[in-house]
Amino acid sequence: MTSTTTSVLSSTAAESDRPGSEWWRTAVIYQIYPRSFADASGDGIGDLRGITSRLDDLVSLGVDAVWLSPFYRSPQHDAGYDVADYRDVDPLFGTLADFDEMLAQAHARGIRVIVDLVPNHSSDQHEWFQAALAAEPGSPERARYMFRDGKGENGELPPNNWESVFGGPAWTRTTDPDGTPGQWYLHLFDVSQPDFDWSNPEVQEEFRSILRFWLDRGVDGFRVDVAHGLVKTDGLPDHLPSVDADSMGGGEEDVPYWGQDGVHEIYRDWNRVLAEYDGDRALCAEAWLPTVDKTALWVRPDEMHQAFNFPYLMTEWNAPAIRTVIAESLRAFPAVGAPATWVLSNHDVVRHASRLALTAENPQGHGIGPDSPGQPIPEVGLRRARAATTVMLALPGSAYLYQGEELGLPEVIQLPDDVRQDPTWFRTNRERYGRDGCRVPIPWTSDAPAYGFSPSGESWLPQPAEWADLARSSQEDDPESTLWLYRTLLATRRAHGLGSGRLEWLDGYGDDVLAFRVHADDGEVTVIANAGQAPVTLPAGTVLVASERFEGGELPVDTAVWLSTR
Ligand code: NOJ
Known about the structure:
By secondary structure, this protein is of the alpha/beta class. It has 16 helices and 20 strands. The chain folds into 3 domains: 3-122 and 201-485, Alpha-Beta Barrel (TIM Barrel); 127-186, Oligo-1,6-glucosidase, Domain 2 (Oligo-1,6-glucosidase, domain 2, Alpha-Beta Complex); 502-564, Sandwich (Immunoglobulin-like), CATH 2.60.40.1180. An 8-stranded parallel beta sheet has the order 11-10-9-5-2-1-13-12. A hairpin with a 7-residue loop joins strand 14 (502-505) and strand 15.
């Protein structure tokens, strides 16, 4: 099956025999959220054949790789992050044969494929959890998960005070076969997502085998879900002060289930598994940690290869703050031999074309809806998003894009309450809107049913009427469109080899301006981004790409430009 990696990629693989030149160090990786990307079957939910049919569009965009969010068998209580069978494709998305075909077609086009691995928890419908429920307390079946007796006289209180990331308690009590209340089990996320016990060798062996299953099929790597959460502090102590479940670990304080030391041993083990395979397979950590320095612990030489730079994603449109996080990233990741990574959007956060213009605080995962405070002005958001992406794609390292950002899609704020599906919405009694607004199926063709997302016109979340103008077909021939901006940035980044460049800060532009030069093997690019309130005088040079059209030598507010200054 590995033969699906055709000659298009093997030349790259040969080059990467040189240490430090592995593809993932500089790659631009496009996140596909399968249920919202392209629907070939017509049921209103995107699928693998839909992805295959759109690969040429990703080639013309100019990305190096894709990461697919989960498509495994799942009851879909958390959009597939509740996995019932790690070795099969959910019929919603197709079959294993569809996956193999998609992978072969992607490889034939020179696009690498990373899949999502969800090791912190399974679905409650996984056969192991069903067996655990049917088994006695203390049994080997229960030992694969985190079952505990409750506190209180009759075990009626949860074992500790931990809260679910999606709101509400992180413990649910089971019912014994005779109908009496039984033990409790831990679920850091939804009640349908029981946490595994990673101190159990059987769990460890199972995941080694799952890694091999997908590596044998030819995948280029894994994005590892909740990579900071697998190991819990011994004895499961209360979290004091009581947990702020707002984020997946973004706070400063020590939390007994985020970032525990023991978790690193798991990734050292996985690193060895990947090293058995050719072609520089990669692990990327989804680890929400408050600082770049903490995040870098996940990418030490014998652990993972990349970690998402969430401190960068969480930074507002504020030049000093962006400068700081870029500088810290370019220090902390290379210090452990890893590339810096960059990301502005994904399926868990408000899309950056809206987020960068929010005027009220909005913690990760809360989402925005019609009555959220600090509503963004769409034009301001899009302008800033285009500028922010223009900065990001010049930076040395590897960058992640989220499907639809190349069209300038905003968060869908006006979703009707009765279509929302994020467990966060239900577990907080509709207090937090959650993440549905960034997951609406993307528009391909302005005048087709469901904007070309699905041949039947079905769409699992409704698409706003304004998206006709944002559809890819509407932007295809418009040099001022966001699609063209992304294409031009990606082509220029590739032509100059910016991903492996070196960044030099430029002085003299004032605090509100980001100014730096990237020196790369194939050229150098000067980047100026104006996050202030007044136009900025540009240095002499040729404009290679600009986030907005402008006249003369003054860079307008909320605009970024790449210049050739030689
Ligand atoms: C992080 C994933 O990105 C998110 O979508 C999911 O809900 C949680 N992990 C739980 O798996």
